[in-house]
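User: Hi! Is it possible to get a structure for several chains at once, not just one? Here's what I have:
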Amino acid sequence: MIQLKTLLNCIDNSGASVVECVNVLKKKRPATIGDRIVVVVQKQRAAGSESSTTTALANKVRRGDIRHAVVVRVRKESQRPDGSVVKFGDNACVLVNKAGDPIGTRMNGIVGQELRGKQWSKILSLAPMHV
Amino acid sequence: MAAPLVRQLGCLRLTPSIQQPAIRRCISTIYSARREPTPLPSNVPEQFLSQLPTRLKKEAEGPKKIKIYPPPPSSRAACKDPVAKVTETQLSVLDPKGERKALFDYRRNPRSVKPGDILRVTFKNGDPFNGVCLSIRLRGIDTSFLLRNELMRVPVEMSVKAFSPNVKSVEIVQRSQIKRRRARLFHMRDRKHDRRSVENLVDSYIKQKRAFMGKR
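Assistant: Yes, the chains can be modeled jointly so their relative placement is included. Here is the combined structure:
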């Protein structure tokens, strides 16, 4: 249930840590796993704590940037075709560019398997784990 | 002289008025047979039949009769409890040996899975899912159980249908250490009671299992 003003965790290394949803694309309803949304970066990941080589990566997005993102985890339970129901502990997303390629190069954290049915295989291959 | 002769006319009426009713009754009690109805001529031309009053019409042409149909046979007699029947047939297809049913029937089977146990579910495509069992929803063929775990610091909950053909195996990794007083352990979602990750326990269980199977 991602809609206007929802805050999400950003789980890639693009430099954003918390983003706010400002629009749900191609849908008149709240977004769920695999949906594309427009976000504003609210919090940056602390660049100082990381090593100097990764600061270039951390600067990929800044606070206040408007980017596209794909939702990868939601608190709202989602039902699979086999009847099982999956529910995560937080809302999370991955930033993507206009073409749909992820901005970050690494991801930390699990993602929902619903991405597979929605042609986000690039994100699935980056993810360390999917449930 | 003439005065006593003059009488009021009302006096004259008295005498005949007493006798009259008797006479009248005599006339009325004379028996007379009731007039017989004129029989309907047998050869009435067809064009006049429609003009006859309904009581004189023949039975075939009489007032329209409403056809009464018998009620349809009750389907209740064929199957008294169809839901139970469907459940039974589905169970015989999906769980012919009744193992899965016994595994989750925590009200009757003392060796079954109980809320608080740590389970490992393997799906048909080979993906496993481990977690603490928070609740078992006993609903016949729709029986499901809720597992909670923490994967990469993110809590994940998954409700799995017990009789789903997608579920290959369900194993009990560890029984609940303490006696649980309730059937739904939703308080384990709170930070204070959260079990956190059970991956380490499951890993050691798998190692043990492999060693055991290797010895055999």
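The longest helix of chain B spans residues 9-28. Chain B has a mean pLDDT of 86.

User: Great, thank you!
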